[in-house]
Amino acid sequence: MKENKITNKQLEWFKKYIYIENIPSLYYLESLYLGEKKIGELPKNIFDNLTNLKSLYLSHNYIMELPNNIFDDLTNLKNLNLGENKISELPKNIFNKLTNLEMLFLSNNYISELPNNILDNLTNLKVLYLRYNYLMELPKNIFDKLTKLEVLFLDGNDLICDIQNCRDWGLKKKSCY
Question: How far apart are CA 19 and CA 4, in angstroms?
Answer without folding.
Answer: 16
